[in-house]
Amino acid sequence: MIAMPVQEYIKHAYESEEASISAIAKRTGMCWRTAAKYAQRDDWNEPMPSVRAKRRPVMDPVAEIVDTWLLEDRLLPRKDRRNAAAVFKKLQEDHGFKGGERTVREYIQRRRGELFKGDSSAYVELEHPIGEAQADFGTIHCVRDGKIVEVKSLVLSFPWSNAGFAVPMPSENAECFLEGLKLLFEQAGGVPRRLVLDNMSAAVASIGEGEERVLTEAFMRFQLHHRFEADFCGPARGNEKGNVENKVGYTRRQWLCPIHPLNSFEELGKLLAAEAVKDMDRVHYKADRKISDLWEEERSALLPLPNVPFEAMRLDSAVLNNYAQFRFEKATYAVPQGKPRQKVLLSVCWDRIEVRNREGELLTTLPRSYMLKEQPIDWPALFEIYSRRPRAAVHSAMFRHLPEAARAHLQEADAPDRAIRVRALRDALKTYSMDQIAEALEALPADRRANPANLELKLYSLRPENRTPKPIAEGYTPLEVAAYDPDSTLYDQLLPTRLEGVATR
Fold this sequence. Notes:
The protein is of the alpha+beta class. It contains 18 helices and 15 strands.
């Protein structure tokens, strides 16, 4: 197999320069058959284990004819132009076309964007060209198991219409980046013609002299598979993709406020997808039209999604230890079906690792071990705020993440009593954790929780170190006194003796 940069050159010469296969073969010094294989390739998934044979594009014999029709139609009013169905019918009748209507439709959609690139006469004059997108990672915060966790969000923005989409990911690695882009393209219903990125390691392997970039093989496969043009910002010049930078912050503030729980990436992804659609119902900041209307126009300028889905994965290998385990990216994985010292093949996807033996037989599929960065919720600081607005405490964004006992303790009180309880919890948090306070509230009878003194006593009693007082350490008492143990029976002898038969008063 020839190197990926050579494959990319062949595809570029064939698609963009419209060079013949014979000319490409002469330039590269390879045979015609090999040049044709890569020039006409549509599926750029990493072959495993073999590469599928590709058919010759059926549009080639009629491509020039269709291009001419498109250029002619551009001179006519829009209502008089031929649509894809009419073009398909004419090709069948006059030129014996053997392909399908979908093939013609996808070709027309792609060629209109290429032939009329920069022609904005049919569109609102905006700052960015139609069909161009920007992508970048951001950080969002969710709540998981009572703690705030950081989650990566891959955002795709279309500056022309100001439409945007977002998908949550557990990491910024290459697999998450490519899988995220694929999901975003599917949400958009098409592929942007040009994608602006920064120099993230998931796409750029290195930057040489003159900002010459060496792309990762995985990204090159993804780009060729989806047929978009990639453009990269200069080093330390993220402002060149300012639209998506703003969109990252916008989605965090508008789509995920208040902070949401993280039950699964799938659930959070559905929420973000719904918010993306809902957000289009507002007016564009510059065009005085709804974003949804502009997006309908821009979506028609996108490239079609590939017929064969791209699988974002990479291949690796490992050797099992004596316990049938292997280490991968600082995590240990067990393969019960494996054998000690066995060499295994790894198909690493964004969410899982498929483990195979040397014969390619699947041994097991393991969920990928991502460590989410956690930080505790700052309850002392929050209750300091609540103490100034006790009535609004139960309506705060973080209130629902309180332990159930603490939530009930505040909800069951009326406004004056709630203020007392909020301040009591604020004071208790200076010494105790929220979990300790919840334990104390659960241990208290319902009729005793209202009194802050009872809560303090219960908290004190639940601390093991407070159950037995520490002895007082002092050194001024003489040892003979400190060690003296009096005989209390001597005091009994001093009591008056009752005489028999004598009455006492």
